[in-house]
Amino acid sequence: MNEASSFPSRREFIKTSGRIAVAGAFAGMAVPYVHAAGNDTLQVALIGCGGRGTGAVADAMSVNNGPVKLVAMADVFPHRLNQSYESLSREHGDKVDVPKERQFIGFDGYQHAMDCLKPGDIVILTTPLAFRWVHFPYAIQKGLHVFMEKPLCADGPSARKMLALADQATVKNLKVGVGLMSRHSRAIQECAQRAHDGELGDIIFMRGYRMFGLGGSAFSTKWPGGSPNELLWQISRFHSFIWASGGLFNDFYIHIVDHLCMVKNDWPVSAQALGGCHYRRNREGQLFVDQNFDTYSVEYTFADGAKMLMDGRCMDGAKEIYSSYAHGSKGMAVVSASGDCGFPSSIHSAQFANAGNATWTSRVAKEEMNPYVNEWNDLVDAIRNDKPYNECPRGVQASVVCNMGRMAAHTGQEVTYDQTLNHPDAYAPDADKFTMDSLPPLRSNEDGVYPVPMPGILKDHEYAQG
Prior knowledge:
Number of helices: 13
CATH architecture of the largest domain: 2-Layer Sandwich
Strand order of the largest sheet: 14-13-12-11-7-10-9-8-15
Radius of gyration: 22 Å
Helix content: 25-40%
C-alpha cells in the first residue's frame, strides 16, 4: 500500500498524546464541567437505542456514585427506541424520565437529545461507528461528558478526526469513556500490571481467538427493497458493511486485540494477514451480499519484533475457541480464559497452562466482577471527583490496529499502522449530512451484491468505491 506522511506516525502519536493529556488537564481547569461529589444527579441522554445502548444505560444506573437518570433518547428506528424505553422503564422505574417530548427520531435527533442536558451531564453514543465523529463534536460543544461504544472509526480520515476531537475534549476537561470493557476487568488489569513488572519476562508472542458461529448482522442476504430504505437497512445490518462498523473484524475482535496490546503495553507497527469466504450462501441457498470474510488470521508485529496472532472465524459447526494468551521468556499468561474478559486470568512458569505450574491466579472482589459496570464506576468517579479521564485516544488506537489487520487481509498486503492512520479512503464521508431519504454510501450492483475485497488485485483499497 502507498504510504502517506502528512499526519503523525504511530510513534509520534504515542510520544505526544501523554503530553497533550497532561497539558489538557491543566487547561481544562478553567472550564470545570464537573459535578460535586455525590450531591446531585447526573442526567443521561442515549443516542442509539439498540441492545448496546440499552445495556450501557443499565450499567450507568448501577454505579456506586449515583444518582444517574435517563432523560432523553434518540434513534433513527422508532421501534428500537420504544423497545429500549419500555425495557429500561420496567427495570429501573423512576431512574427513567423520558416523556414523548424527549424521544427523538431521525438523524438530527442526537442534537435534540443533547439539548435536553446541561453541561457536566453524560451522553451515551452507541450508534454504529460511522456516526461517532458526527456526534462527538456536538457533545464537546455542549460541555457533556461522553461514553461511546467501540469501535470508534473504520478508516483513516475518521480516525484522525476522532484524535483531534479527543484533544478538544481534554482541553475542556470533559471525561470520555470508551466501551472497551476488558480494560476494566480487574483480573486483566492485574495480569497486565504483572506483565509490565516483569513476571513474564520479555513478551515474545501473543495469541487471541474468537472462533464462533455466525453472529450479529455480519452476514446479510439481499436488501428486500421497500421499507426500511437501503440506507436504514444497511444501518440495521451494520456488521455487514465496513463503512458502518469496520466489518465483523473490528466489531467482534477489537476487545481481544485491545487487551493483548494492554498486556504488551504497546501497539503493533504492521500486519500481514490471511482471510477468505468459505461460504457465500446461507443454509437456504440465499446469496450473502455483505463485505465480510468468514475467516481471518492476522499476524501483527511490534517495534521490538514481538508477534501477536489474531484468529477469527464465523462458521457454524466448527470448533469454538474464544480466549487469549501471552507468552514471555519466563512463562505464559492466560489473559482471558473465555470470551473477551473471562475469569480467571493466570500466569504460569511454562509455555503451557495447568494448575501445577500456575504462579498467580486472579481473585476479584464480588462487587468488581462485572467489567461493564466497572467502566461506568471508573467514568463516574472521574466526573464526580474531577480526575483526568479520556479513553478516546487509545480507543482510536485500538480501532486503527483493527483497521490495519482487516486491511491487510482484504488487500493481501503487509500494512503499517502509519499507512492505516493516514490512508485517504473515507467510507462514509457524508454521514453528517444523512437524512431519512438519503442514499447509502455503499451501493450494490444490479443483483444486489456489494463490493467485496479482492486481495492481490485491489492492493491499495479494501474494495472498489464509486
